Amino acid sequence: MFKFTGTIKVIQPTQQVTEKFAKREFVVTDTTSMYPQDILFQATQDKCSMLDGYNVNDQVEVSFNLRGREWTSPQGEIKYFNTIEAWRIERPGQGAGMPAGGPSAMSLGSAPAASTSSPITAAEEDDDLPF
């Protein structure tokens, strides 16, 4: 999971690619460096609607996954493609609660530590599981 903060430059309409697949592309500009970077993100399926509450020039923080795949052309040439798949978008500093895509290892808080003062029962002593 990665995060990127910037200003929305472009929001495209949702494209129904096939009967079962929809995508929506948007561009976010990072203006923190001397050379601004325009980054193209893609939202898919039910995530397309997460852009409905945003407009061009809004400051956003995008949580995303980087996807890559191999493709072989009809001529046998192998090419590689990357996709930046957005799964959450929010205004900077708004981040609280579960992500729109559900919990992940990065978004879950630490589990409370087990109490060491509780006595071990006979059933727990006989348990051969390592956890």
Q: What is the element layout, followed by pairings?
A:
Elements: E1 2-11, E2 15-18, E3 21-30, E4 37-44, E5 59-72, E6 78-90, H1 122-126
Determine the CATH superfamily. Nucleic acid-binding proteins
Counting DSSP E segments of at least 2 residues, the number of strands comes to 6
Mean pLDDT: 81
User: Which structural class matches the secondary elements?
Assistant: mainly beta
Helix content: under 10%
Summed up, the domain count is 1
Distance between the termini: 28 Å
In brief:
The protein has 131 residues and is mostly beta strands.
Structure in words:
With 131 residues, the protein is mainly β. It has a single domain (2-94), classed as Beta Barrel (OB fold (Dihydrolipoamide Acetyltransferase, E2P)). The protein is built from one helix and six strands. Strands 1, 2, 3, 4, 5 and 6 form a six-stranded antiparallel sheet that branches. Mean pLDDT is 81; it is low at 97-118.
Spell out the key features of this protein:
six-stranded antiparallel sheet, OB fold (Dihydrolipoamide Acetyltransferase, E2P), 1 helix, 45% strand, 131 residues, mainly beta, globular, 4% helix
